[in-house]
Amino acid sequence: MSTVTPYKESKAAKKEQVAEMFDNISPRYDFLNHFLSMGIDVLWRKKAIRQLKGEKPQMMLDVATGTGDLAIEALKLNPEQIIGVDISEGMLEVGRKKIAKSNNQDRIELKYGDSENLPFEENTFDAVTVAFGVRNFENLQKGIAEIYRVMKPGGTFVVLEFSQPERFPVKQLYNFYFNNILPFFGRAISKDNSAYKYLPQSVNAFPYGVRFTQLLETIGFKQTRSMPLTFGIASIYVGKK
C-alpha cells in the first residue's frame, strides 16, 4: 500500500498530518459525512454493528473513533463499556460533547490513542471496531497487529471502510463524484483545501476486498469475510481472533 498523505508540501509523518487534517475539519465533519454520503453512512454503521449482535461483547474498543458515531451505535449491543480512541483531539472533543448530550458518559469513554501503539493490555476486548479509519493508519499492518494483540481470544474484529465499485456504470459515476463533486463541496464547507482531495486518494491506495482479508489472515485472524455495501462503495470486513 503506497503512502498517501493529506498535505503534500508537509514534511510531517502521515500520522501527524492525518491528526492535523481531522483537527481542521472536526467542527464540520459530522455534517459533511452525512451530507456527502446522502445519509447512507448511517445505515452502513448500523449494519457494521449488527455483525456483533450474536456476540454480546461486554468490553469494546472503537479505534479511530472520530466523533464517536460508531461507538454510539454500538450502545445497541448493550456492552458494559466502550472505549473510543483517536489521534485527533479536535474530533474527540466533538464526540465527547455528543456523548454528554446523549447522557452516555458512563458507558462510552473517548481518549487519545494511536492505533499503532494502543495503551491497553493484551487480551482486553471482546470486540474491536474501526469505521473509515484503517486507510488512515500510517502502518496498516502494524495497526492491525496492535488491534489483534488487545483482543481476547475468540473476539471479533469489524471494519467498515470505503472500497471501489467495479461494475459499469456505478464505477464511472462513483469516480466522477468522488474525484470532482466531493472535493469541491468538502473544500467549500470544511475550508480545508486538502482533506477531501486526500479522501479519494487514500481510498484508491487502500487494499480493499480480498487483499484486505488476506492481510487480516496474515496477522492471525480467522474466519475472515468481506461484504460489499451499496454496489461496492464501502465494505464490511469481519475476522475472529
Structural commentary:
With 241 residues, this protein is α/β, with parallel strands linked by helices. The protein has one domain (14-240): Rossmann fold. Helix content is 44%, strand content 21%. It has helices spanning 14-36, 40-50, 69-73, 89-101, 140-150, 170-190, 195-205, 210-219, and strands at 59-63, 81-86, 108-112, 125-131, 151-162, 222-229, 234-240. The chain has a seven-stranded mixed beta sheet with strand order 3-2-1-4-5-7-6, with helices on both faces. β6 and β7 (234-240) form a beta hairpin. α1 (14-36) packs across α4, α1 packs across α6 and α6 packs antiparallel against α7 (195-205). The radius of gyration is 17 Å and the shape is globular. The two termini are 24 Å apart.
In short:
The protein is of the alpha/beta class.
**Proportion of residues in extended strands:** 15-25%
Q: Tell me, rounded to a whole number, the average pLDDT.
A: 94
Could you say what the CATH topology is called? Rossmann fold
Uncertain stretches: none
Structural class: alpha/beta
Number of strands: 7
Compressed to H and E, one letter per element, the order equals HHEHEHEEHEHHHEE
Q: Give the CATH architecture.
A: 3-Layer(aba) Sandwich
CATH homologous superfamily caption: Vaccinia Virus protein VP39
Number of domains: 1
Order of the strands making up the biggest sheet: 3-2-1-4-5-7-6
Radius of gyration: 17 Å
